[in-house]
Each structure stands twice: as C-alpha cells, then as structure tokens.
Amino acid sequence: MNIVIAPPIKETYEKDVQALFPDAALFWLEELDEEKRKKALEKADVVLSRNIVGDIRKEEIPLLAKPAMVQTTRTGVDHLDFKKLPKDIRLYCNSGGWARGIAESACGMIIALNRCLREQLYDLQQGKFHILGYHQKLLSEQTVLIAGFGGIGQALAEVLPPFHCRLTAISRHLPKSPLLHKAYTMDQLEEAVKEADVLVLALPFTKETEGLISRHILSLMKEDSLLVDVARAQLIDREALLDKVKNNPRFHVAMDVWWEENEAYPKDGDPLLTYPNVIGSAHNAEMSSTAHREALMNALHNIRAFLDGKPVKGKVNRKEYEA
C-alpha cells in the first residue's frame, strides 16, 4: 500500500502517520524532487492533501486520477475548479475534521446574540449604563434549527443539550439523532424556519445551496430570531440580509464567513457590521490550540477506515459543484 503525504507535515506528524499505517509505504512529497514526486504520485494508492491546489502542483493534478482515495484535510471543497480535476478522481473531504471548534463558536455566538452583548458594549462605551431595555433571551426557551447535519451540525447538536433548548435539524437526507426533537428534509425548509428561534447554517456550499437563505426564507423567520452562519456567506442573499437587519433591529445575525475574505475583504469592513444587531469573526470559528492536529488526525483515521474496508466519511460528489 502506497500512501503519498502532500502537506509539509513530516517533522511534526511523522510518528503519528507511521503509527496509523505501519503496513504502508509512505512518500512525503516535501522531501522529493520533481521526478520522484511524479513517480510517487503515479504509484499512489492513497493521497493526503491539504486542499489540492496548495500542495499538488498544476502539472501533477492529472496523476490524481489513479489513487483509490484522495483525502483532503480541509472540509470545504468549493474552492476547487472541478473542471481542472481528473474526471475519475475519488475525492474525500475532511468531514467533521474541524467541527469541535466550529460548534463551540456557533454556541458562543448564539449566547452573545441572545444576551445582546454588542448592544450593551456599545452603550457602555458611550457612557450609558442601562440595566433594562435590552431584548435578552434564554437559549433554554428557544428552538434551534441546525441546517446541515454533517460533522459540524452533529457536533453542534452534542454541544447544545446542556442549555435545554428544543433542538431540530434539516438536511438533504432526514437527520437521525436521539438528540433531536424534530427532523426535516430540505423540501420542508419553509416549515422549519417558521418554527425556529435560531437558525444555524452548517451546510456545504454547492450549486443547490447557493442563495438558499433567500429574501423569501428570511421573511418567514421570526421577527426576533437569530441567524448564525458558520458555513459560507454565499448561502445567504446578501442584499436581502442587509435589508432584514436594517429594518428589523430585533433580528440578530452572527457571521463567521463573508462574501469577500482575506485580501478581498473591504478595507472599511463589511456593511453588515455597521448594524448593532450583527456580530462576526474572521472565518476562524474552527481555530484552537488543538484544531490543526484534530483535523489532520480525523483525515488520517478516515484513510485508515478506507483501507480497512470500514465506513468512511466525506465522499465528494463533483456534480454538486460543477457549473
């Protein structure tokens, strides 16, 4: 069994990888020259890559057609141009690899919005000390709808029960968990959002989910509900959300993801953040001192399961991403 490790992680994780795959021949691309990289990829049974485009060279991409498994350490694959990938690539994303941090971040965002922390902070900074007057809410009195019940959605479902909220979930396939009070499929989205006090987006960004939270769906949400997005900003109609936030100060939003990010992020900030009923973070909900190790080990254990003939997670259907 030949396993190619594309990310430059040998110094830190060599012992972990060897312990999981004592029966495999390991090829670390970081220490190979151009010709040896090519040969390693040509005979690879499994390839581990961070995100394909970062550690596999352009001229090496066609070689990814042969391996029985190409496993990424990232969860999302919407950054990939599938037209440039081999048609026969067997790609697996890192489902659940970053879920623990994202779930805790989503939970923290819900609480921060419920307790009106941004509004209170602003008032305190202005010298205003109001004990009353904020529309604070209790999570224990709310129905939380998790949209997307993959690794992140399931992790959030495990975090929330101590708060005694009514937990619901919606996904393409009917979510199944003893933690849920109710489950929906995507054709029941309108019904589900009408009942929710909190909507958390944990869906992948695909052709079908782009713009899913439309002006119409936003109009169905309760006047004082919360919207938390830890998935992709493109799931939401941007202009419709701006209008909703502007015209309804009791509607609260938390965003970890944005329509423009990194160098493309607006120099004067996203317009959404000019409103006091919005909080945000810089697409780092997953981060912690252990996040990178957890994500890598999750991907490696998925490879181990694949080699052992056990159930695996994260198989990517390219048709969901191709234009």
TrEMBL record:
<dbReference type="GO" id="GO:0030267">
    <property type="term" value="F:glyoxylate reductase (NADPH) activity"/>
</dbReference>
<dbReference type="InterPro" id="IPR050223">
    <property type="entry name" value="D-isomer_2-hydroxyacid_DH"/>
</dbReference>
<comment type="similarity">
    <text>Belongs to the D-isomer specific 2-hydroxyacid dehydrogenase family.</text>
</comment>
<dbReference type="InterPro" id="IPR036291">
    <property type="entry name" value="NAD(P)-bd_dom_sf"/>
</dbReference>
<feature type="domain" description="D-isomer specific 2-hydroxyacid dehydrogenase catalytic">
    <location>
        <begin position="29"/>
        <end position="317"/>
    </location>
</feature>
<dbReference type="Pfam" id="PF00389">
    <property type="entry name" value="2-Hacid_dh"/>
</dbReference>
<keyword id="KW-0520">NAD</keyword>
<dbReference type="InterPro" id="IPR006139">
    <property type="entry name" value="D-isomer_2_OHA_DH_cat_dom"/>
</dbReference>
<dbReference type="Pfam" id="PF02826">
    <property type="entry name" value="2-Hacid_dh_C"/>
</dbReference>
<dbReference type="GO" id="GO:0016618">
    <property type="term" value="F:hydroxypyruvate reductase [NAD(P)H] activity"/>
</dbReference>
<protein>
    <recommendedName>
        <fullName>D-isomer specific 2-hydroxyacid dehydrogenase NAD-binding domain-containing protein</fullName>
    </recommendedName>
</protein>
<dbReference type="InterPro" id="IPR006140">
    <property type="entry name" value="D-isomer_DH_NAD-bd"/>
</dbReference>
<keyword id="KW-0560">Oxidoreductase</keyword>
<dbReference type="GO" id="GO:0005829">
    <property type="term" value="C:cytosol"/>
</dbReference>
<dbReference type="GO" id="GO:0051287">
    <property type="term" value="F:NAD binding"/>
</dbReference>
<feature type="domain" description="D-isomer specific 2-hydroxyacid dehydrogenase NAD-binding">
    <location>
        <begin position="108"/>
        <end position="285"/>
    </location>
</feature>
